[in-house]
Every structure is written in structure tokens, then in C-alpha cells.
Amino acid sequence: FPSESKLVSMGLGHEEGFGAPCLKCKEKCEGFELHYWRKICRNCKCGQEEHDIPSSNEEDRKVGKLFEDTKYTTLIAKLKNDENPMYKRNVMILTSPVPAKNVSINTVTYEWAPPVQNQTLARQYMQMLPKEKQPVAGSEGAQYRKKQLAKQLPAHDQDPSKCHELSPSEVRHMEQFVKKYKKEALGVGDVKLPGEVEGRADENNLKNGDRGTSSTVGAMEKSSSQKASQYSCYHCKQSMMEGDPAVYAERAGYDKMWHPGCFVCCTCNELLVDLIYFWKNGNLYCGRHYCDSEKPRCAGCDELIFSNEYTLAEGQNWHLKHFCCFDCDCVLAGVTYLMVNDDPVCKSCYMKNHAAICQGCHNVIDPEVQRVAYNNFNWHATQECFLCSCCSKCLIDQKFMPVEGMLFCSVQCKEKMMS
What we know:
Layout: H1 2-14, H2 58-67, E1 76-78, E2 85-87, E3 92-95, E4 107-110, H3 119-127, H4 140-152, H5 168-184, E5 186-188, E6 190-192, H6 194-198, H7 201-207, H8 214-221, H9 224-230, E7 246-248, E8 276-280, E9 283-285, H10 287-294, E10 311-313, E11 316-318, E12 337-340, E13 343-346, H11 347-354, E14 371-374, E15 377-380, E16 401-403, E17 406-408, H12 411-418
Antiparallel strand pairs: 1-2, 3-4, 5-8, 6-7, 8-9, 10-11, 12-13, 14-15, 16-17
């Protein structure tokens, strides 16, 4: 009995958000249950980010760990009795003006806002985002932010303890990789007014060494009357107003700026969550897609591959131990498998869960035998199955008339059967 209870507690500890409903599958999913090495629900096969998991400190811990040992330590704090730093997320609460007494005060809480001292600037920034992406507590935008945090900044891209059974060598390579991207690519966008930055651009770029560009220096020399027309978004190339907030990325140089809604990953085109970006070769990336541009990612466990040995199958990369059947997890090396929705499935599971059913004999159709498919109906391509539903004439290589899963060789047979 003691060992049994120990196993249960370990399982519950592993499954943050256990039982949470799936926002995609609704009632078809019994509730979130994390697979022991895939980053998906065992019940519905959707990702953790597709489930309505109550907010916890886990996301703030993850971002806190990301900013550890970087220049962004002002955005984190260490709590007592907790060795991991916590992300000091800037929450903004706006109160509507109350015209009279005895009127309830309306407040709007943004679950995240740019960490600027000027709240008017932060409010302007929020209003320039698409409505459905504004992280107002309890809204579609808050759900969007939560989903992007999980998608863009996977914990298993920076923390070896969140990965499945890494060898000491893989842990070492991962730690070196994380240290390198924190030093060379990671950044947090600054929200400022273009006029504010213009006066300090030269100084900032000198601090950034080779990040300063001749275009910045050139921009500095223009007269203030010309400056307004010089502001354009690095992403959409459209002009920017001097009184509107712009987003700057220090690693890109302060001669570049973005509209709030244009500060997106160059790969997935999603808003960079909490303005956290990775800069590479003149492009902004989210964490996930920056890592994908540097390392192969296992299609089975979603982790980056730090081993020299891995397999390439169906145009995707896999850890050797993770090239498994998506249904039963058996290893597929040297085994016949089929692809179902881009996932490999062993033949046994395919026959049990995915194979087409013959309208003639009502048995499953082996994927290696010939079949006839019409609309959503299937038949064995044999004289015994592909027949006229009235006179049983074989219809292989013959004209036929389909009616709701039935086949007819002639109008007469169809009329006879339908009457």
C-alpha cells in the first residue's frame, strides 16, 4: 500500500493542471493528463496550452529562470525559501472615472503591461494592440497571452530538469546553448516615444558597440522638422507617428522601431509575448523559433536534440528513443508504420484505430491492400466487396451510381432497391 500511494503522489506532482478541460476538444476530453514524456494530454492528444489550466506561479518561475544571469535581472525577484527567481510581471489596473457618488468603480486589469513608468504610454501601447490580443484579465486576450507563453517559451528549451532523461553530456550541451543565447540573442523590447529615443540613439548605440549603425548616426543629424517623416516600422515599413508608442529592440539597434502590433516573430508571426524577443540575422524570433533555427527539435517529445545521434523520418527529426507509435508508444525502428495527421502509427494501432471500414464486408481494410474510395466510403477492391447493392454484379472497372454508401450498376437496380 505505501508504494502505491507514493506512485499516485508522484503522478499528481508531475501533472500540473491535472483534469483541466480542453478548450479545443471540449467535453470529448476527460481532462488534462500529461503524457510521461510527450508534452501533450494523454486523453485528447492536444498540447498543454490548449487546456484551461488555472494560472499558477509556474509561468512566472519559467520567465524568471530565463532572465537569470542576464541584464534583465531588474525584472526578476528571489523569494524566500525559493531558489528559483520569480518574474516580476508588470500588472496594470486602470480605473474608469466615476462621475457621481454611489456608482460602482469599473476597473480593467491587464495581466501584463510594458514595464514603463508612464502609465499613459502603457495604456496607449495596449490600445494599439488588436482587441483580441490585449491581455485583460478573464478575456480572450489573456487566454492568448497564456497560450503564447507556453508556445513561444517552452520550459524544456532552457531547463534540463524539464526534459526527458537527458544524459550528462546532453545536459552540458544544453546549458552551454542556453548560456550562449542569453548572451547573444535574448532581449526585452522597450516601449518609448520615437522623439524620446532619437536624442539618445547615438549614445545607446555607442554603448552597444558594433550594434550602432551609420543609419542611426545619419538619423541623428536630421533636423527635427524632418524627423517625423523618418519614423517607419521595421516590420511593415509604414510610417509611425511621433506621439505614438514604438517598440525598440536594443540588440537590433535604436535606429529600428516597430508598431506595437508589428513586434512579432518572423516565423510564426505571433506577437512576441511580454516583448521577449531573440534577435538573429536582422530578424526577431520568439524563443521557440529561435531555438528551431539553431538546433533540431524532436517531433516526438518537442525537446531540442543535443545528441549527435538522432533519426530523420517523414521530414522531421526524432530522438532515437522517441520515434514511437503516437497511439501506443512502441518504438518504430525497423517496424512498419503509417502516418496519421503527420504522426507515425504502428500497423497494429492503425488497424485498430484508424483503418477505413469496407462498406461491403464491414471489416477493416488493411492499408497494404487495394481499396476503392468514394466520398467518405471505402470498399475492398475485390469481386466480393465492390458490388452492386441490388444484383451483386462486380463493379470493378465498371460505371456505377453511388447512393449513401450503396452502389448500383444501373438506374433499374437503383429504382428497384429504393422502392
